[in-house]
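User: Please run a holo structure prediction.
Assistant: Happy to. Please share the sequence and the ligand.
User: Here you go; the ligand is FAI.
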Amino acid sequence: MAIQRALISVSDKTNLVPFVKELVSMGVQVISTGGTKSLLEKEGLQVLGVSEVTGFPEIMDGRVKTLHPSIHGGLLAVRSNTGHMSQLAENSIETIDLVVVNLYPFKETISKNSVTDEEAIENIDIGGPSMLRAAAKNYRDVTVVADPEDYPAVLQQIRENGDVSEEMKLMLSAKVFRHTAAYDALIAEYMTNLAKEESPESITVTYEKQQSLRYGENPHQKATFYRTPLKTSGSLVEAKQLHGKELSYNNIRDADAAVAIVSEFNEPAAVAVKHMNPCGVGTGEDIFTAYSLAYEADPTSIFGGIVALNREVDYKTAEKLHEIFLEIIIAPGFTDEAMSLLSQKKNIRLLSLEINGKGSSQKQLTSVQGGLLIQEEDSLTLEGIDVMVPTKREPSEEEWKDLKLAWRVVKHVKSNAIVLAKNEMTIGIGAGQMNRVGAAKIAIEQAAEKGQGSALASDAFFPMSDTVEAAAKAGVTAIIQPGGSIRDDESIRMADEYGITMVFTGVRHFKH
Ligand SMILES: NC(=O)c1ncn([C@@H]2O[C@H](COP(=O)(O)O)[C@@H](O)[C@H]2O)c1NC=O
């Protein structure tokens, strides 16, 4: 059946006027709410006010305008149902064939810095979603458009056939239910936070498509990248790609890990990541020094890695980065000279991202088979905790520097994790081992003779004194670990025996 009557009520008026002009030129009668009607009339279009259809004024600052049987009857009547149609006739209700509605800007409103709860609540659209849902439920008879991007395709079909195909109506209906669900998910989250409920009986999360991916972790796995609808400054999703091929699934995860680690540092820092673990971290007075140390930390593993830096990349640093094959470089910026040098390589991806040094405070979602685990991010830093030194010897100033670097890094290494650091760089990283002393042995072996006088960080306590002993034999002089094992005494005694200083943080940084 041809489209004869359209109800148009939109907050986002992008591209609306030419769309409605063409509808009217094709003989479609337009019904509109206050603001939409004014705009269309200003453009010389003839529009019927919703109040004229309902016989009821728009009241309470627009809280009630389209919530009326004359509207919802016209949307929900099944045209092939004679009962429905005679009830419409009995109540002098006319059918509505096309609904063009977009909603009060709730997301945009809560994204503003100074938003009040009253303002947010006033931007919860009630009438709009009701119309969208009614039309989407009755999609066989009603075309529903919530996204201005769909105006051209809808117009084309009406132009060609007077109506929209059932296939497209179904597609638009599904899109509307996704849209209203996403809209409600944001509102639910906002109200849940307002009510300070930490573990509600159900949750609905919403994400927006960032990009299609060629494949997932492996080429036979399909994958897509979605982002949170709200801005999350300093997060990988905010990065701008300046050069190179599209990011892959593994690139995104590795780059995310690199950004998280480099965000731990306020001083110039560079981080190289392989398979979500850091392989080299360096800090220094300038970004060239920091990167040189991150490189030197493990010149073998960095090859094909992802490097994140927290300062603009200058030409000198770019020259060094350019010497080896890297998948991605992420930095707050690149000088023009650095950019033209690095972009000579076709395959390297260059990303700019303001690293804000604060880390993320988002909830962390991890899927398990048949479920979802939600936790806060591990945003605890050394500045936020009280440490104690149970050994006879206190760390020297130099040792403190190395301990802090090792501790900042170990938090981001897959458990069981051990990190050795010395002179502003990591010198050994043992990741993802099934026993702690095994992780220590890997880190120690990597450090080799550089281990003399180094600091060791452990993501969790030592169940036995064997790690302290292995560290002592490798030349480690300072250790930082959570403490809390029933055998802490043995580790402390072992440390004292070797003249090692040990710091207890009382905080565990498991990363499974
Ligand atoms: N209350 C209602 O009956 C109602 N009907 C439509 N709206 C919304 O009002 C907006 C358009 O208003 P206007 O045409 O006055 O600019 C649209 O975003 C639409 O979703 C309503 N507003 C909110 O609930």
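The chain has three domains: 5-195, 222-352, 386-504.
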